[in-house]
Specification:
two-stranded antiparallel sheet, elongated
């Protein structure tokens, strides 16, 4: 046999570890894709596939909350961080124009027979009297709002459950849920893909020598199945374990995800603070519940009624003469309704203060980053463990198919 023929024969054998590496890379790449998508089920009837994470969205969302926010931060602690005085200061710029507008509206909404007279009397009232009325109401409403906030804080847990809000949002938004896991473990998922190549080539080298002496039709498919299985299983193991650093020769080995605990925790804190636990979202969720809205309205009516009663020494003589006793009784209702509208529509300034006071990002990042590795491990492990056997089985099946294809080419 010529030297060229020998070279060609050796090159053919060298394709075995090369193909083994490609099989490992391909099966691991597919395993990652199968975790993430497709977001919705794709197939015909019961035959098809949906990404492991979106297919188990409610379970994955609850895992995220149970092993992150709920473990390091309580709803009561968040509520206690809100200072009523600072919150009132943040929304006071909306109360000033609100007071004069509502008082004028009250005086102009009389339905008694003396309507024209009442409007005339209020319009003709001296500026000093009007100013005194405005000042008294303006002085009382912030106190009413402070009482409202103090009363609302211990009851907020009954009006809205922040943990359930997060679970619901992640469960209903599968794209967001998938993105959170994909970005949090981006480096680990890349390692899974590349490790197929790293592990596949060395595993193929002994197969090359065995094939040289023992060329059976089942050999390459069997080793292909083994490569697909080992590369998937080994990569999934190494991103999670060992939990504690282990010295292996000159190297210190630890699960890749655990090793990046501080970095991942910072990411989770940023996502929670910007997309899941914001003042705007919490207020919006609270107002979706009819019972919460009714209780909030009742609290506001009660506090505003107290404020009006305290101020009626100034208001009552002019108001009763202007609009009559029956219309005067409507003052607190009108002001309460308008106050309720203002409270349930906080502006950007109010939201910004609340978000700053909650400090969700730093709190979650620091506390999640300080968890023992055994606890932090649970943030990723259930995601990987869910249908793990399917991912490994698919990798093994593809490896066996590639081995059979290689056998056909070599023979």
């Amino acid at each position: 046999m010529s030297d060229l023929a020998y070279l060609q024969e050796y090159l053919v054998y060298l394709t075995i570890p090369a193909v083994s590496g490609l099989v490992g890379y391909g099966t691991n790449w597919l395993a990652v894709k199968m975790m993430m998508g497709p977001v919705e089920f794709v197939g015909i009837g019961p035959l098809g596939w949906q990404g492991v994470i979106p297919a188990n969205a409610p379970k994955m969302a609850r895992i995220t909350v149970e092993h992150s926010v709920k473990r390091v931060l309580t709803q009561e602690e968040l509520i206690d961080r809100i200072d009523p005085d600072q919150l009132i200061e943040a929304i006071s710029h909306r109360l000033d124009p609100f007071v004069e507008e509502v008082v004028d509206e009250v005086m102009g909404q009389a339905t008694s027979p003396q309507l024209s007279v009442s409007n005339f009397i209020w319009s003709a009232a001296p500026g000093a009297i009007k100013k005194r009325v405005y000042t008294e109401v303006r002085k009382k409403l912030p106190a009413a709002l402070e009482n409202l906030i103090e009363d609302l804080k211990p009851n907020l847990g009954e009006l809205v459950d922040l943990n359930e809000v997060i679970v619901e949002r992640l469960s209903s938004d599968k794209l967001m849920l998938t993105r959170v896991f994909r970005e949090a473990a981006a480096q680990e998922f890349k390692f899974i893909q590349r490790s197929g190549l790293y592990f596949g080539i060395p595993l193929g080298i002994p197969v090359m020598f065995i094939w040289y002496f023992y060329q059976q039709w089942w050999l390459l498919p069997a080793f292909g199945l083994l490569v697909g299985y080992i590369t998937n299983a080994l990569a999934i193991y190494l991103i999670q374990k060992p939990l504690q650093p282990v010295q292996v020769g000159p190297f210190k080995v630890q699960g890749l995800f655990i090793k990046r605990q501080k970095e991942v925790s910072r990411y989770y804190g940023r996502v929670m603070a910007s997309e899941l636990v914001t003042a705007e979202i919490v207020v919006g969720e609270m107002l979706k519940i009819e019972e919460s809205v009714d209780r909030l309205r009742a609290m506001i009516h009660r506090e505003v009624n107290h404020a009006i009663e305290d101020a009626q020494g100034v208001l009552k003589p002019l108001a009763v003469v202007s609009i009559g006793p029956s219309e005067y009784a409507r003052i607190s209702c009108i002001i309460s309704d308008r106050a309720f509208e203002e409270v349930i529509r906080p502006d950007a300034r109010s939201f910004a203060y609340i978000d700053e006071a909650l400090d969700v990002e730093n709190t979650i990042a620091e506390r999640l980053g300080s968890l023992p590795p055994e606890e932090f491990y649970e943030l990723l492990h259930p995601v990987v463990a869910e249908d793990e056997w399917k991912l490994i089985a698919v990798g093994a099946a593809l490896g066996m198919g590639a081995g059979y294809w290689q056998w056909a080419l070599l023979t």
